[in-house]
Amino acid sequence: MPQLFRFGEYIIYYWSNEGRPIESVHVHIAYGIPSKNGTKVWITRSGKALLANNNSHIPERKLNILLRFIEANSEEIIASWREHFETADFYC
């Protein structure tokens, strides 16, 4: 489970085992420690962050800040994904 960023008490990460075929580029967000049920965010080809679910129940104001942070760091996220999985497909 590669941790990409720590943003205050939140961790932004992806799972090393994303299944086969590997899902499109996305990250999870959890409060404190990574969780399988963390909030899921798709990264688009253009670097936008699309909320897939908010399973971590992050308050809307904080979630919007986290989504902007993910967009600002999308190139680094995509590069890390490609390095780890040797591929990168996009939700859109």
Structure description:
- The structure is a single chain.
- This protein has 92 residues and is an alpha+beta fold.
- It has helices at residues 60-72, 74-85; strands spanning 3-7, 10-13, 26-31, 39-43, 49-53.
- A five-stranded antiparallel beta sheet has the order 1-2-3-4-5.
- A hairpin with a 7-residue loop joins β3 (26-31) and β4.
Rg from alpha-carbon coordinates: 12 Å
Please bin the fraction of helical residues: 25-40%
Lateral strand order in the biggest sheet = 1-2-3-4-5
Strand content: 25-35%
The end-to-end distance, rounded to whole angstroms, is 24 Å
What is the structure about, briefly put?
The protein has helices at residues 60-72, 74-85; strands at residues 3-7, 10-13, 26-31, 39-43, 49-53.
Main attributes?
92 residues, alpha+beta
Tell me the layout of helices and strands.
Blueprint: E1 3-7, E2 10-13, E3 26-31, E4 39-43, E5 49-53, H1 60-72, H2 74-85
Antiparallel strand pairs: 1-2, 2-3, 3-4, 4-5
